[in-house]
Amino acid sequence: MTLTIALSKGRIFEETLPLLAAAGITPAEDPESSRKLIIGTNHPDVRLVIVRASDVPTYVQYGAADLGIAGRDVLIEHGGAGLYQPLDLNIARCRMMVAVQNGFDYDEAVKHGARLKVATKYPKIAREHFARKGVHVDIIKLYGSMELAPLVGLADAIVDLVSTGNTLKANHLSAVEHILDISSRLVVNQAALKLKYATIQPVLDAFAAASADNRE
Ligand code: AMP
């Protein structure tokens, strides 16, 4: 029975390699250099499909992939329908933060009930966060380079992922609120888990054991 695992290129792929190795799976090619979207492995029955990070839950939801690895941010925005989420892999860790231009008095604006323009790739997370705080916001959906928005007057604040903080710093922005800790999770198609249990369970066990090392 073929097992298809959906992954995105970059940090998630690199940090998943040791987990795949623990499950005895070695990709036949590097997706960074190969242009292939379906990558075989040393296992005749296991293949990887390379998709955009935000598309991973969709491939798994509809069963085009049995397993996938996606950030908590992506899973919250997707909503998780049809997905079983058994494992936090503790990889690709970062924080979802609110950030503003240096000098913008965020606390003062919030205290005075100002209506804030917030640019983000994560409208659901942003909307829920500000609703919890009772802050009125207009959400402006962007697909990248959120850091630019406050600099050119598109938004008062951004909601974005922060890892080292270097991108904020380079663009004269400061984090003012921590919304969520983010890491990547393993997701499984609910029907596949039942139908392919014997194939999937050993992979889950190997990933669980190997990802325990990522926990501090
Ligand atoms: P940094 O400069 O290290 O704080 O990284 C911030 C930039 O990298 C922002 O543009 C983020 O959207 C992106 N980023 C940081 N961590 C992650 C992650 N785990 N997954 C996806 N994007 C990330």
Automatic annotation (TrEMBL):
One Pfam family it belongs to: HisG
Source taxon at top rank: Bacteria
The EC number(s) this enzyme carries: 2.4.2.17
Positions of the ATP phosphoribosyltransferase catalytic domain: 52-206
GO cellular component, one term: cytoplasm
GO terms of biological process kind: L-histidine biosynthetic process
Pathway this chain belongs to: Amino-acid biosynthesis; L-histidine biosynthesis; L-histidine from 5-phospho-alpha-D-ribose 1-diphosphate: step 1/9
EC class name: transferase
InterPro entries: ATP_PRibTrfase_cat, ATP_PRibTrfase_CS, ATP_PRibTrfase_HisG, ATP_PRibTrfase_HisG_short
Keyword annotations: Amino-acid biosynthesis, ATP-binding, Cytoplasm, Glycosyltransferase, Histidine biosynthesis, Nucleotide-binding, Transferase
Family of this protein: Belongs to the ATP phosphoribosyltransferase family. Short subfamily.
Subunit structure: Heteromultimer composed of HisG and HisZ subunits.
Identification of the protein by name: ATP phosphoribosyltransferase
Organism: Paludibacterium purpuratum
Lineage: Bacteria, Pseudomonadati, Pseudomonadota, Betaproteobacteria, Neisseriales
